[in-house]
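User: Structure with guanosine-5'-diphosphate, tokens only please.
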Amino acid sequence: MDLYEYQGKQLFARFGIPVSAGRLATTPDEARVAAEELGGQVVVKAQVLTGGRGKAGGIKLADDPDDARSKAHRILGMDIGGHVVRRLWIERASEIAKEYYLSLTFDRGAKRPLFMFTTEGGVDIEEVAATKPEALVRLHVDPFEGFQPWQARALVYGARVEDPGEQKQIAAIVGKLYDAFVGCDAMLAEINPLIVTPAGEVKALDSKFTVDDNALFKHPEIAEMRDLDAVPVEERAAREKGVTYVKLDGEVGILGNGAGLVMSTLDVIANAGGRPANFCDLGGGGDAEGVVDALEVITVDPQVRSIFFNIFGGITRCDEVARGILQALDRMEIAQPIVVRLDGTNAEEGRLILQEAAPANLHAEATMLEAAERAVELARA
Ligand code: GDP
Ligand code: MN
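Assistant:
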């Protein structure tokens, strides 16, 4: 789960990482009041779950409350990379002398959290990594040993921070970022830029914070931060129905039972020259209820041109799934053609049930590859 900048900053503050005072606003008038309360110059910042807001015009300095109101008016409703701005974070403006970059993320290859730090902040970190790799200091933390204070010093000296005051403050922030990362079960905690003010004060000017979905049950106060309006409709539908669903960007909707089968179905569709629009895992169940739920979720996505139902009967019997599919078709209108491949336990009975009922938009195929080819062909028709 990705957090908004202001939510990430709330977590930062809780763990002792310095941030600027700010207020949330959803209307230009609220922005004006927020600026009044904060006093002096403020920054009006679009809150969207994507980066590059500055470049897109979603971050503006405002000199007084009326200016904040008009900047807010301009930014609200803006589309930034497909995300519509509905919330603003109004923050007391900072003076910036230097912009650094600090992040902690999971290095899956190394199976360890990885710190990255550079004094070349404020810009895309990918660019620094590509053009000035020597300026990017990388350091793994052994999760069993935990974070050690020498690691913060290694980052700071490695990036050649010379000012002793900066060294001390950054080292402290590094330790606190590790605490926040572990304490919140984060997957990513990024500060870009980590600024130094002309007075030599170091603080987090931005926050990108991602929490592991599977750990949200341990953090109800973070789970509550989720903005349901920002979740795509089909994902919201899936969550409500308890269906495992992943959105992709092709045209074949995929439904299977079991994660492994679903994964290989994606490959088979690609092999047949098509692209999956999404995938749904029915799990162990193949009853009408489960099939209806999954089909409802899949067909919310307007990109779906055909549906590939790939079932391997094990504990789930194919005849049950076949009946589930027919009941589902009775209960709902489905515009897209459906290709069904049934194999495994009671596959023949299952296919027979489908053949006898013979719904117009349903095509039964004997093998996974034939079914994939059919689904891809129907998606193109
Ligand atoms: P991003 O573009 O989505 O990464 O948003 P950031 O929060 O990182 O802001 C982008 C840029 O806006 C920063 O790198 C700063 O240069 C500028 N900015 C943000 N807040 C302030 C501020 O308080 N004062 C000044 N002078 N510039 C700011
Ligand atoms: Mn940033």
